[in-house]
Amino acid sequence: MKIAILSRAPRSYSTQRLRAATIDRGHEVRVLDSMRFAIDLSGAEPDLQYRGRRLSEYDAIIPRIGNSITYYGTAVVRQFEQMDVYTPNTAAGIANSRDKLRANQILSRHGIAMPPTAFVRDRADVIPAIERVGGAPVVLKLLEGTQGIGVILAPEIKVAEAIIETLQSTRQNVLIQKFIKESKGRDIRALVIGDRVVAAMRRIANGDEFRSNVHRGGGVERVELDTEYEHAAVRSAQIMGLKIAGVDMLESDDGPLVMEVNSSPGLEGIETATKLDVAGAVIDYIANQVAFPQIDVRERLSVSTGYGVAELVVHGDANLIGKPLGDSGLRERDIAVLTLHRGATVIPNPLPYHVLEADDRLLCFGKLEEMRSLIPARPRRRPRVKRLPKQPLPAPE
Ligand SMILES: Nc1ncnc2c1ncn2[C@@H]1O[C@H](COP(=O)(O)OP(=O)(O)O)[C@@H](O)[C@H]1O
Ligand SMILES: [Mg+2]
């Protein structure tokens, strides 16, 4: 296998470790500067030049795109995607995770617990937004901050308002977020590779600092994560489209609250804290994926007219609940069940004896017409009911 590490910091700990791990496993590796690529759309096929010469063939890339070069860096990653070079983190995933608001918006619809957050523009909306997330003290965050820079704890509403106004006047966008007191300057970093957490650490802020970033002087310790934390981390990375990610979570009284998902997690802190070979795990994962490249199943399976993939949900469906899959009648209707999702577990290629339960989700391939009747109605937004006033309304005269 031949791997390119896209990095502007060839001497950094993470790049060095990834490079060494690749060589250790008998693969070829180059560290390439993301800013020295030229995206070439002049020929018949998408192409890339590197330092003025045509790029040689690579099996995979490991993008380590710094915050300051997100736009160009993701464009280069996207070009590799067009050329069918495997990347664990897609350009879309990197771009989405980089912007804290965008990441929060995407995660929130998938039921990932996050600190209550608001984003407003108009002056008149600032105070109500702060109050909605729980009032002062309140955390303010620049959308594209990193290493703790641009994360402020405002002790009072008036101060928060002044900070927001100042930042907005310099055209900076700010998130308003509930301050999770009980996390007490600590957070969890879970390193996700594929569908599991391979290493995790707790970061502890220095002194009375509330930000636990290592760049702010925080310390680290190894932790064993509860499954609740593992699930939150893996799901968040998956939703963001990142196969390699550092997921940051606060430990709240109600369990994990996901703060951010990093697409180029640093390896130094986590390898030091856990003594685990995270770089090696990254390379092993990539080698596996290159052997079995991702294919867009939906696209490939939609080729014959009238057939496609769909997810069916076993709702209060008396015809299905309690029946073994073999007696469900699905196969007779030309519907093949590829996977069965039940809560957090997945049964791949379920067999005819698997008994269906309420709320099982079946990923199916079959005749669209047959499946249409089984697809649940689109979820509706909760109807908003106006609260009745505490005092009864005065009777009309
Ligand atoms: N809502 C919050 N409540 C309490 N602590 C927070 C909150 N948001 C962030 N922090 C602390 O500040 C640190 C930096 O915040 P984060 O959103 O991860 O920004 P960055 O991208 O700069 O690392 C976190 O690691 C955490 O320790
Ligand atoms: Mg962070």
From TrEMBL:
<dbReference type="GO" id="GO:0005737">
    <property type="term" value="C:cytoplasm"/>
</dbReference>
<dbReference type="InterPro" id="IPR041107">
    <property type="entry name" value="Rimk_N"/>
</dbReference>
<dbReference type="GO" id="GO:0006813">
    <property type="term" value="P:potassium ion transport"/>
</dbReference>
<dbReference type="GO" id="GO:0008324">
    <property type="term" value="F:monoatomic cation transmembrane transporter activity"/>
</dbReference>
<keyword id="KW-0648">Protein biosynthesis</keyword>
<keyword id="KW-0460">Magnesium</keyword>
<dbReference type="InterPro" id="IPR013651">
    <property type="entry name" value="ATP-grasp_RimK-type"/>
</dbReference>
<dbReference type="InterPro" id="IPR036721">
    <property type="entry name" value="RCK_C_sf"/>
</dbReference>
<keyword id="KW-0464">Manganese</keyword>
<dbReference type="Pfam" id="PF18030">
    <property type="entry name" value="Rimk_N"/>
</dbReference>
<dbReference type="GO" id="GO:0006412">
    <property type="term" value="P:translation"/>
</dbReference>
<dbReference type="InterPro" id="IPR013815">
    <property type="entry name" value="ATP_grasp_subdomain_1"/>
</dbReference>
<dbReference type="InterPro" id="IPR011761">
    <property type="entry name" value="ATP-grasp"/>
</dbReference>
<dbReference type="InterPro" id="IPR004666">
    <property type="entry name" value="Rp_bS6_RimK/Lys_biosynth_LsyX"/>
</dbReference>
<keyword id="KW-0479">Metal-binding</keyword>
<feature type="domain" description="ATP-grasp">
    <location>
        <begin position="104"/>
        <end position="287"/>
    </location>
</feature>
<keyword id="KW-0436">Ligase</keyword>
<dbReference type="GO" id="GO:0046872">
    <property type="term" value="F:metal ion binding"/>
</dbReference>
<dbReference type="InterPro" id="IPR006037">
    <property type="entry name" value="RCK_C"/>
</dbReference>
<dbReference type="Pfam" id="PF08443">
    <property type="entry name" value="RimK"/>
</dbReference>
<feature type="domain" description="RCK C-terminal">
    <location>
        <begin position="296"/>
        <end position="380"/>
    </location>
</feature>
<protein>
    <submittedName>
        <fullName>Alpha-L-glutamate ligase</fullName>
    </submittedName>
</protein>
<dbReference type="GO" id="GO:0005524">
    <property type="term" value="F:ATP binding"/>
</dbReference>
<dbReference type="Pfam" id="PF02080">
    <property type="entry name" value="TrkA_C"/>
</dbReference>
<dbReference type="GO" id="GO:0009432">
    <property type="term" value="P:SOS response"/>
</dbReference>
<dbReference type="GO" id="GO:0018169">
    <property type="term" value="F:ribosomal S6-glutamic acid ligase activity"/>
</dbReference>
<keyword id="KW-0547">Nucleotide-binding</keyword>
<keyword id="KW-0067">ATP-binding</keyword>
